[in-house]
Structure formats: structure tokens, C-alpha cells
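Handout, page 2. Input:
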Amino acid sequence: MVGIGTALAIDPHLPRDWRLGKDNAPQLPPITWKNKTLASLANMAVVKFQLSKLSLDRAPDPKVSPLRALILQQLANALRTRQYRRRMGI
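Output:
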């Protein structure tokens, strides 16, 4: 299911293409960082980046930099954490 979710994040028209008989299997470029933990986090950040673009009715960008996607995700998480702490009075 995760693989299908990733493919749909890259190409939201995938079911239509399959129904038309196209042999389409989109993939993200592999992340070849030495630190496998950061590479996995970056891969998840790229998929989340694609999903957030789709949620804003924008076209996905499969060529987004994994580092950029990871940094944007970390900044967004820090902002949400700060907002939560303010609301909770922590």
C-alpha cells in the first residue's frame, strides 16, 4: 500500500493510465546519501511534499530536492510544535 501511495503522490492520474492500459510505474529518484537514516527521512519528506502539493491542487514535482523537502518538513514541524506549545501554555 505504501508503494501505491508513493506512486499516486507522484502521478495522481495513475489509475486512469492503468485503466487505459498504459504500463506506467512512476518512481522517485533514489536517494544515495551515506547516512541511510537521513536518506529514509528525506524519502518520506519527498512523498509528503508531493502529497501536500496535491492537497493544494498543484501538480506534483518528482524532481524536488530531497534535502529541500526534508528541511521544509522539519521547519513546518518546528512551527507546529511552537504553535502547540503556545496554545498549551508550555
